[in-house]
Amino acid sequence: MYDIIIDKWFSKDRSVLTASWFVVSLLLAFIITPDKHVDWSTFMVMLSLFAMLFLLPCIIGMAYGKRIKSWLQRQWRTFVPKRKQDTDEPVDRQIESILSASTPPVMTRQEDETRHYDSLVAKVCPETVRNLPDALQTNDALFLLVLFREEGYLDSDFRPMIKKEDGEINRTLYAYIADALCAALVIRKGKWVIFEKFWSLNNGAQLAGNLRSASKGNPTEHQRHIAKLLRKGARLRPKLDTCDLGEFKKP
């Protein structure tokens, strides 16, 4: 009860408290107004009452809020049976000591994944990084390239691995991947120049557009897998979750 009344309420954002009191003051002003005819005098009386009810507590709260909270805390403690506090405290301390001694800090799955990919990025050969286009040498770009490398789309030098029956790389697929990478990295100008040299993609914009048109309403297995990878990347590095990336995460 103490947590609900004092700790949780008084720890709320000031805007929440202000908005709540605004509504309460408005209702009180309406109730207190003696004559509720629809005219200017009634409106002015209600407005004056509202201003007094709303602004006065706000001013007092801003000036003496901390003192009021500490006073309420002291008053609350006087109503709580001292005996119960005395018996509960040693038990709480004992539980805390047992938990702190026996339970190691638990890392979440997302933290584990983030550390895993950070370590993979750190292990990328410096020579490989130097051979990348300048726009792909950033930490975020390396993270995305490693993400696709680990799923079998790229080799150790971050070159395309999936090929068609004739031995040529699947240019349509890699144009789509290049478009997605640039969307995440906010590379809008010159993106096809980058990948025309790096992945030997000619007419990348047309190839990516053709795949979108052909698979509209029925995404391919690769598109679904790429969408899953991009959602994972945006979850591990939220700043990669750009507006342009949204369409690639839908399939």
TrEMBL record:
<feature type="transmembrane region" description="Helical">
    <location>
        <begin position="40"/>
        <end position="64"/>
    </location>
</feature>
<feature type="transmembrane region" description="Helical">
    <location>
        <begin position="16"/>
        <end position="34"/>
    </location>
</feature>
<keyword id="KW-0812">Transmembrane</keyword>
<keyword id="KW-1133">Transmembrane helix</keyword>
<protein>
    <recommendedName>
        <fullName>Transmembrane protein</fullName>
    </recommendedName>
</protein>
<keyword id="KW-0472">Membrane</keyword>
